[in-house]
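Subject — a protein and its fold

Tokens — whole-number codes for backbone shape
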Amino acid sequence: MTPEELQKMLDKIPQKKFAKLSDKRLEYIETSKGKKLSEITKKRVSESKKGIKFNENHIKKLSESHKGQIAYNKGKPFSEESRKKMSESHKGKPPHNKGKKMSEEQRLKLSKSHMGQKKGIKLSDEIRKKMSDSQKGKKHSEETKLKIGNFHKGRTHGKPVECYKYPSMEYICDFTNLTIACNELKINRDGAQMTCTGMRKHTGGYTFKYKN
């Protein structure tokens, strides 16, 4: 049943009867607190919700109603069992944004949201070990290897850049890409990247510009 069909059905119910139904509903909610649903009930609820899509107006109202609220699971880490279930449920499913390109407006929002954030944050040894262990034993299939190879064919790794001395802005030389420039000058690549995008004026006494 769609939300529109449900609303039409509710509109036909007399107000007095509806008030009684509301009271019964509240009574049911109070008596149901703390009770856990059986697996069969959970499955039925899940099946009944499948395919239902909210309209734009409903989505906007939901968004407005949740603004300023603290998420119920904020600061609560997932248990190993929950992580495993989430992992199993997503296996074989393509990402929701696969093949979709972000609009310029979305890119700008992302860029603004990341401005001022600290770069170069070091991961703890524990996290590094977990990341390393998760990749052990994994091998690319022949199909994946072929796709990666075809993707990189004929591509140049990075854009050529012009290097200038800061603050005199004296031209020094061109580099094939930013990585080579940073290795040669022994400076931080993240800082150099930010000078190219205009987020920083200089790094290590140098500034860079992408070649047109």
Q: What stands out?
A: The mean pLDDT is 81.
